[in-house]
Amino acid sequence: MTETPPLHPDAAAPTDKRVDELLGRLTLDERIALLHQFTPAVERVGLAAFRTGQEALHGVAWMGPATVFPQAVGLGATWNDELVRRVGDAVSAEVRTMRARDDRVGLNVWAPTINLLRHPLWGRNEEGYSEDPHLTAAIATAYTRGLRGTHPTYWRTAPVLKHWLAHNNETRRDTTNSSVRPRVLHEYDLRAFRAPVEAGAVAGVMPAYNLVNGRPNHVSPYLRAHLRTWTEQGLLVCSDAGAPSNLVDSEHYFDTHEEATAAALVAGVDSFTDHGTDSSIMVGRLRRALDQGLITEADIDTAARRQLEVRCRLGEFEEIGPFEDVQEFDTEAHRALAQESAEQAIVLLKNDGLLPLPEDARIAVVGLLADECKLDWYSGTLLHRSTPLDGLRERFGTERVTFAEGADRVRLRCDDGRLYVPDAPESAVAQGAEAALDPALLAGRTDLPPLTTTRDAGTELALIDWGEGVLTLRAPDGRYLSVAEDGHVRASAEQPGGWVVQETYTLEPHGNGHLLRHTGTGRYVSVAADGVKVADEGTVFSLEFVERGEEAVARAAADADVVIVVAGNDPHINGRETEDRTTLALPPHQDRLWRAARAANPSTVLALVSAYPYAVPDAHTALPALLWTAHGGQAAGRALARVLAGDVSPAGRLPQTWYAADTDLPDLLDYDIIGSRQTYLYFEGTPLYPFGHGLSYSSFAYGEPFVTRGGEALEFTFTVTNTGSRTADEVPQLYVRPLGTAVPRPRRQLLAHRRITLAAGASERVTFTVPFRDLGHHDVARDRWSVTSGPYELLVGASSEDIRHTAQLTVEGDEPAPRPVRTDGLEAAAYDEQRGTEIVDRTKISGDAVTTVDDEGELVYSDCDFGDDGVSGVRVEAAGEGVVELGETCVITVPATGGPYDYVTLHADFTAAGVRDLRVRLRGGVRLARLTFIARGTTS
């Protein structure tokens, strides 16, 4: 056997030289092959096979058992950067350990997701950290540092940030356009990505499916114009799954896949995730694009080099890998960290003194999530499991804790009898025990007998209504009714799950009964000779209620000293990847349960366990205590019990605003947080619970702050004292509010935060160092970042609304000035206000234009300086067809130009002088790119 040559004999050589030498040893076809997610080995140079993409959002996902930490939004709720860094460190250690056992485990991890939680109805709310760019950037930086590791040269894993850019909707997610004005782009969306990249622990980013300003993210000019300018380190841009094909197939942005692939490569995409493990399709497109002259070998080499740089950083090219001795998996430290992070993620929303619970309390724990430890799409398989019921019984004793789930108990009857779940044969039970480590295997099993019917009593099923008419049905042995590939209905699933959930149903009225529609297939449950299956035509069923869930809850509540109602969501149902929510309301079934508990026992606590906020104003008014936690991973139940018992004082803080009603929300697809007054930054209503909110079992006093200035930063110093009787954490938060500004600025904006632990009576001096740059905003008139001269108010407190002290600061910076439109003209997208418009792509490569949404819109440009002598005309650069109106008298008709990218320049008389606001109205399908003004007395 011929010995495989080393990848590079000189291990001391710089990374770029080692990569260049290896690149030079590869043929063109081998270099092209590197650009697919699954790259083949090149044995003649000792290059192993490699794949980009290992999900690791809150633990190693999809690769079997691993430590499961709280969901990302729960990690955000800890407001604890150092804790999250330790979580990232543990996850990266488990990635390396699992990689040593299974080479399918990848070292290029696609985590974290740092899309800002702008809108709480986004189905993937669970994946983000916060609605605030500062908090998101801080938590993301901490997690990526943990994933990267502390080795001075080599990376333990290579994190890729998701999803670039302005992505907050699953509804038509591959075809919708996020209209992002320049201020929102620079002040909001880009800020979340920039800090982690500048911190040096990020290997790359993944573009999102959607379009931004009319252009798909996978051909975004912002990759080059912004992302790659933030660091001198090479960044690997990995496409989202299937997105390269979307450029043609669903978005119709390019006519051919060769054009689309070339455009994505040139824009900066380096790794194409498309067509699964079959690389031949994408490799073929790249080769044909090269042959057609759409890309060059240099374009191929640039992307291939970025791939190899990441692999070099991971230590792949060393004779002895730098992390071969890592054996940290499901350690005692990891288990303790999972519990600590779950405890720190719990937010006490309200407490009228009912909590913490007395040691001798008789507790009823009730609700649909009371005995659940739910996982989401990006979870690993549980090695350990703790439900709220488990945790409370462990903490208070089994004899002091009673349980009622609150599911409706029903039988389903049809003309053939009642539905019946047959017993599983012993062989199938044994196989089920083996498959229990992977619940997905249970749902698809065909070795279990399908449901049938009987003339006897039939099987009593637990029916849970998760809201919006979506139901699950569960057999007495705990298995959910699921549909396998053969179409039969079986009690086979441990939990609802999978990319297409096969365990949910809806009831459709039909005659004197209901059809039971299976949501996964869209077909109807039908009784057939060979068992119950799904078919195009369904059997009509009637529901026989054995017991309503609220009846069982009321019985348990009446016999207890205190009731804990555990409500929330299943992360695979009604709000997940591919599916947005439609309401903030708690599902009616769960709403009935807490009301039944409260009616039977006023000492009722509502513990919400969910991936997103709810609007629960009635519960807030009626109940003495409420808590919220994201799904907390393997230690969720124990953590909740310890907080309820007072072993841990809660100190989690809300990472996003909890609104009081759906009417407080803008349209899901409205990305203009300034114009529609979104998030705590701009929201002018009264939230149910504000951003940063979270109560404690202790109390804290804030000392008078003082501010010092030096260099390019300010220091804000104050003292926090624990004035309570127990050790507890506090999270002081520093906000800024510009005073007297001419442009709309946030009501207040988070500048700094810190989670601290104080013993009873102890004090700590806290100093926040804030760069002056962070006080600024994007000046659309000059297209640059600006810190404006004037007064600013600094506010410190326990939440965005619980402000304890303020201090004023006068800043010497940029003087406010009108827009120099007479000399510089106006970019259409650089407006101050708008109505009925959206930003679209000026060309497929770069630039912005503005068009109407429903054939009519208006743009406002404030403080435009037309000069003392004024202007006498205007030139309009526009495409499409329609009308542009300036003021009351200037009307410019844009004839059909031939296409959306066929711009013409039209001239019209227009007079204006001095400083004034300019209103521009658009009608029809016109796309306005730019306005240029002609000074009075000139002819050109």
Write structural notes for this entry.
It is a single chain. The chain has 940 residues and is of the alpha+beta class. It has 5 domains: 15-313, TIM Barrel; 344-406 and 549-650, Rossmann fold (3-Layer(aba) Sandwich), CATH 3.40.50.1700; 416-538, Trefoil (Acidic Fibroblast Growth Factor, subunit A) (Trefoil); 698-811, Immunoglobulin-like; 821-935, Jelly Rolls. 22% of the residues lie in helices and 28% in strands. The chain contains 21 helices and 51 strands. The strands form 13 sheets. Strands 14, 15, 16, 17, 18, 21, 22 and 25 form an 8-stranded antiparallel beta sheet that branches. A 6-stranded mixed beta sheet has the order 11-28-27-26-12-13, with helices on both faces. Strand 8 (211-212) and strand 9 form a beta hairpin. The longest helix has 21 residues, at 81-101. The chain is globular and about 95 Å long.
